[in-house]
Known about the structure:
Blueprint: H1 3-10, E1 16-21, E2 24-31, H2 40-47, E3 54-60, H3 65-82, E4 88-95, E5 104-111, H4 114-129, E6 134-141, E7 148-152, E8 157-163, H5 185-195, H6 200-208, E9 225-230, H7 236-247, E10 250-253, H8 260-267, H9 271-292, E11 298-301, H10 304-315, E12 342-347, H11 350-359, H12 365-373, H13 375-387, E13 393-397, H14 402-415
Parallel strand pairs: 9-11, 9-12, 10-11, 12-13
Antiparallel strand pairs: 1-2, 1-4, 2-8, 3-5, 3-6, 4-5, 6-7, 7-8
Helix pairs in contact: 5-6, 5-9, 7-14, 9-10, 10-13
The structure holds adenosine-5'-triphosphate (ATP) and ligand L45E5XJ5.
Amino acid sequence: xxxxxxxxxxxxxxxxxxxxxxxxxxxxxxxxxxxxxxxxxxxxxxxxxxxxxxxxxxxxxxxxxxxxxxxxxxxxxxxxxxxxxxxxxxxxxxxxxxxxxxxxxxxxxxxxxxxxxxxxxxxxxxxxxxxxxxxxxxxxxxxxxxxxxxxxxxxxxxxxxxxxxxxxxxxxxxxxxxxxxxxxxxxxxxxxxxxxxxxxxxxxxxxxxxxxxxxxxxxxxxxxxxxxxxxxxxxxxxxxxxxxxxxxxxxxxxxxxxxxxxxxxxxxxxxxxxxxxxxxxxxxxxxxxxxxxxxxxxxxxxxxxxxxxxxxxxxxxxxxxxxxxxxxxxxxxxxxxxxxxxxxxxxxxxxxxxxxxxxxxxxxxxxxxxxxxxxxxxxxxxxxxxxxxxxxxxxxxxxxxxxxxxxxxxxxxxxxxxx
Length: 419
Ligand SMILES: Nc1ncnc2c1ncn2[C@@H]1O[C@H](COP(=O)(O)OP(=O)(O)OP(=O)(O)O)[C@@H](O)[C@H]1O
Ligand SMILES: Nc1ccn([C@@H]2O[C@H](COP(=O)(O)O)[C@@H](O)[C@H]2O)c(=O)n1
């Protein structure tokens, strides 16, 4: 048993477990006796479970972050293909309230019939024997009582389960730093260095990175550095191109085009690798900005706001009120990353954004449906954008014509003396 697994087991009774099921999150903990009474919430969750179904939880307990993240990521595919088709699985996690980096991820499984449950059990026992970094539990309903028992396979221990209050901040925030958001060049580079032997493309990205000496603070730029941010189809490309022409500026983007050959590869990886890749893209773009800013104004299509806001809004998967509170250290600007003179955040009414996506030839039928489902995600991204600290961020209503939006932004640039 690994040290990490032993540590997890030694805190088992202090841990809170959460399961995301049917759009709701249910929190429960275990009771140090075997007879914890299942309260209403736990019963509601288990009550939704089909009568006669067997339930299991799988938590990934590996000590090494990247290994653990990739294992958890691939486990989803493994579950989709190996489990009997009638089985359902939902995201779950376990954490120590208020303890940084204590979050472990996993899945909650339901096997609706005795056949599917037998196959599931056989499979899970095989996986455990393979020395996979898994903690496996099954949940048993005591007949004619409201009590549920959690049976931990790894130690053959039984505990009653009881409901737990939702934590003060979303559990994902416990592990955000250096797993979803990287606040220094070195922290993001470390991740790519550690995975270079398993992902050869990481070595190619590492070769493009600036040297440590190049990261040191530079003198104040001669010309303004203007970043355009916003959700997809809010008009960033259109506006950055017209600003470039209007100001005689240099147009850059993050991630920079030199990373394009590897972007799709990292987009397939779990957040720790994907986010480290995008974080590093900002540092490469920063180098390009440094080499231009003594010659012309620089316009940038997406920068740090996109990296941090999307990462936070993806990890924290509840309503907007679940985001880290305004002023949280999680919204800070990395101290070693160039700060632009100003950031313009393009905002757009969701209907108009959908219309523009449609006109662009996207967002029909299935995609359109997904966008609708993702409405809460979009609200979280927009709110996270606004909470990021560092350079001045000005929201711009981008619903008028392209010419009017350009005029509005040019006026702001002049009025605020960025030029
Ligand atoms: N102000 C505007 N009024 C109407 N249509 C616009 C306006 N600005 C851009 N568009 C159109 O909306 C679509 C999306 O614009 P654009 O590609 O500039 O957005 P974007 O933010 O760069 O998107 P993405 O992030 O997905 O690349 C394009 O078809 C563009 O021509
Ligand atoms: N600086 C950046 C830029 C982008 N991202 C991520 O890419 C996605 C949006 O990019 P589009 O090219 O589709 O507009 C989004 O999922 C961001 O997570 C980033 O992280 N950092």
